[in-house]
Amino acid sequence: GYWMDRSNINYADHAYKCSRGTCTGSQNSSCWTVGSIENNTCNNDKLLCKKGAHGPLCGSCQSGYTYSSDELVCISCSSESMIGAIVLLAIGLFFLILAFLHWK
Fold this sequence. Notes:
By secondary structure, the chain is of the alpha+beta class. The chain is 29% helix and 17% strand.
């Protein structure tokens, strides 16, 4: 996708290719017209960035989100996404206890 700086009308004619999959386009064509910068319904992050992403080139993840290099988007830090980390922690703890008992 592409991103543009809509903070000032002078920058609105420059579109930048996003290096991540976090940019999107608006289905609302009125957001891309002159004067739409002041339109409150054309929020930059909602207009330009996929859910969970914000900032220039949608390069940052919002609070409660983390960047997934597998999916190339910001994903929610929900309990589902934490299951993998918990499993790895449990496996590491198991091997640590096993090593301790072996050297004892």
